[in-house]
Amino acid sequence: MVVTAVPAAVLVVPDTSANVISAAVRALGLGDGQVAGLLRATGLALPALLLTVPLAAVAARRFRAGSVLTTGTLVLLGGLGAVRFASAVPLAGTIRAAQGVGAGLMLPASLVLVWERGSRALSALWAGVLAGALLAAMPVVLHAVPLPAAGTSAADWRAALAPLPWPASAAAVAAVVCLAARGRGPSPLPVLRRTERSQLVLPLLPAAGFAFLAVVAAYGWSPGARIVVALFALAALLGLALIGSRDATAGSPFGCAVVMVATGLLTYPVAGPLAGLAAVGAHARGDAAGVPLAPFAGACAAAVAGALASVWIAARAGGRAAVLAGYGLMLAALPAGAAGVAGLAGGAQGRWTLPVLLVPLGLGAGLALAASLRDAKPGAALFGLSLCFPAVLTGQLLALSLQAARLQRARPVSEAGQLAALTGGYRTWLVAAGAATLLLAAVTTRLTVGRPAKPSTPARTSQRPHSSETAAEAGVEDGAQASAQASPRTFADAAPASLMVPQQAPPPESQTLPRVAEQVAEQVAEQVPERAPGAEGAAEPSGG
């Protein structure tokens, strides 16, 4: 389930409509002023996903997570199957939004199902697959929808709306199998409380505002204005992560919320533009192979390996050390990538740049994310997931705005000049991402100092039934407990107040039973009135 549901959901995020824009304009009869509207509509999947995740997190905790996962998979399949009916811009936007909603339902449900198993290795695998999918999503989709050759256009522009439908089909089969194997027994997780529900929906309104601004500003605002919006969004996400980290419900021993923000900011927004540069460079050289998939596949494998290694590292060095080691790997990857990214236009240097940047980045992201989930409660993990995809949108807006600013200043007229300007903007983004990594690592370090890890698996004796328990059953149980507490069980409960021993703490082991009896006898004697002197003689009859 983990290796099918998470990649199928993440593959909804990339938007490659720009590669088929000429075919879309011809098929839909769009004018020059309507192209931006089409690109805005086809980019609705990520905003819809990040708005769905908080609500789906509540649903996965309130209802059966397997049912929520199956529902999300069906919605995603419906959105992918409806692509053939996309004959107008509003329909294309609706289809992409439906795909985002389905993916947003699948991710929290898969996380809850993993938490129900109570396995650290399985939760680490989930974290590694999420980080790896964020790194590999864009190059995989670009390979399926490549840039058309010079003088040609795509055969069908709607291929960009559903480039890879088979991962969703595999996820549907896995969801049905998981639902059948899970059965209808109660969830082993604690019942959803009001405080946890409030924390899970906390990111909803800020994320909605940011998603609206990102959609509006994507093609109508200047690059500088978009950068300001992204910086405000990053500050808001960091504030939400700090608030949630101090909460008993959404907090975790190793800063899960902050690490989720770092994962969203440094995976897809770094790998996606890099894949775009590799595709443009291959197109400029006339290379029909397009984006090289091997470096991105290596980054995905490194993310999974780092996540699984976190189980061993955290058990010996501690979860905090594993998280900081992951930050260190990501921080080391960014300057190396910034130094070598200029060679992407061609030559051996460009081919080596991809693995030098991506492999340590994936290794660090998987290690840090999996270690931060160690001993986290379900509410803390879901709260962090609610911040991950707003961070993806924030990083994407920053990276593309920096590239657009460089293009605006350079105004290149050739394809080689455009590639050089895009590369320069990407290098600036890597420097900014390195500064953000330092900030997030410092915040995580501050949050995890002096905070002991607490096991997240509740004791079986303290578990409550799942939320499907009826109110009548709860009332009967409470009534039985109340009557049991009210019924007298010992002689002391039914004795008069004058004969009762005051309720005190349990006596130490050295206090024996005769001593307790002696105290009771002394209190009873104090309650019996003493007779006056000579009373016995007055009671006897007089002689004679």
UniProtKB/TrEMBL annotation:
Keyword Membrane appears in the UniProt entry: yes
Keyword Lyase found: no
Keywords: Membrane, Transmembrane, Transmembrane helix
Residue ranges with Low complexity bias: 514-544
Region (Disordered): 450-544
Transmembrane segments annotated in the record for this chain: 38-60, 67-85, 97-115, 122-144, 164-181, 201-221, 227-244, 256-281, 293-315, 322-346, 352-373, 380-402, 429-449
Bias (Polar residues): 458-470
Lineage top rank: taxon: Bacteria
Full protein name: MFS transporter
Organism: Actinomadura fibrosa
